[in-house]
Specification:
Layout lengths: L8 E4 L5 E6 L10 H9 L2 E6 L16 H14 L5 E6 L1 H12 L4 E7 L7 H15 L3 H12 L2 H4 L4 H8 L7 H16 L13 E6 L7 H10 L4 E5 L8 H4 L1 H14 L2
């Protein structure tokens, strides 16, 4: 982490709790994890949520934004907090960052939970991510978020009574400045460039891959391919309504039970 970068973070739960680092997705600040973090904290975890560089209250710094560079930021945050080893939960972009952290610093990762993940950007994803990146880079954030809303959430939520409440929950985590929007465009470039396919077999910690059959951003087959490449990885595929890219929120109770059960076995 370059010296002019300050990473914003929040810690939930007891100082003596088992550390759990949460790495969030493209364009969103850590606040979207607030309520789920409190649930894990109530179970005795010391939950560390943070913003990637250039997002929320974290400064941009000068380093290029790649999944490997963001993993170096995560390691530096653990160093600053005096955390030698943590369970790591990563969602979407954060799942790729978590992969890179486990590959570069295996001694720092007690277990790995990868939600809505991928190892190499597919042709389908390139066709999807490239125009979305363009919208963010050209200042069309409202249009970009409109498209992402349709892609990230399930049809049942989009057409259901919980839609307005869900959007109100997400809104504070969205980019709020033009500088943030430019950083989001850089994050989409990092998504496009991510490629860990030839290295995932080197991950040795207990791992869980969570996928949703309705996920249009990282289709379930891509998450399953990640699990196939990590030795001994467990998989959890959510099916039916709400099994979307945002399954952690649409299916929050099931998500917490699934992840919590895995973490408890490796605590």
């Amino acid at each position: 982490m370059d010296t002019d970068t300050q990473i914003d973070y929040e810690v939930f739960g007891p100082d003596s709790g088992t550390p759990l680092l949460i790495s969030t997705g493209t364009g969103l600040s850590w606040g979207i994890w607030g309520e789920l973090a409190k649930v894990f904290a109530a179970d005795g975890y010391r939950v560390i949520c943070y913003d990637h560089r250039g997002i929320g209250a974290s400064s941009r710094g000068t380093a290029e934004i790649t999944t490997r560079a963001l993993a170096a930021d995560a390691r530096a945050l653990l160093d600053a907090l005096g955390v030698g080893r943590a369970h790591v939960l990563g969602w979407s972009l954060g799942s790729c960052v978590a992969q890179e952290l486990a590959l570069a610093h295996p001694e720092r990762v007690a277990s790995l939970v990868l939600c809505n993940t991928w190892h190499r950007t597919s042709v389908y994803q390139r066709a999807l991510f490239t125009p979305i990146r363009h919208l963010w880079s050209t200042g069309q954030a409202e249009l970009a978020w409109s498209a992402l809303t349709a892609l990230c959430f399930s049809p049942e939520l989009l057409d259901g009574p919980a839609f307005d409440a869900t959007m109100a929950m997400v809104a504070p985590a969205l980019p709020s400045t033009r500088a943030h929007e430019q950083t989001v465009a850089e994050q989409w470039s990092a998504d496009l460039a991510h490629d860990s396919a030839d290295r995932l077999a080197l991950i040795s910690c207990p791992s869980l891959v969570v996928a949703g059959e309705q996920d249009l951003v990282t289709p379930a087959w891509q998450s399953e391919a990640v699990a196939d490449l990590i030795p001994g990885a467990e998989t959890a595929k959510l099916r039916g309504p709400g099994a979307s890219h945002a399954l952690a929120w649409e299916r929050a109770d099931e998500f917490v039970r699934t992840v919590g059960g895995f973490l408890a076995r490796h605590r």
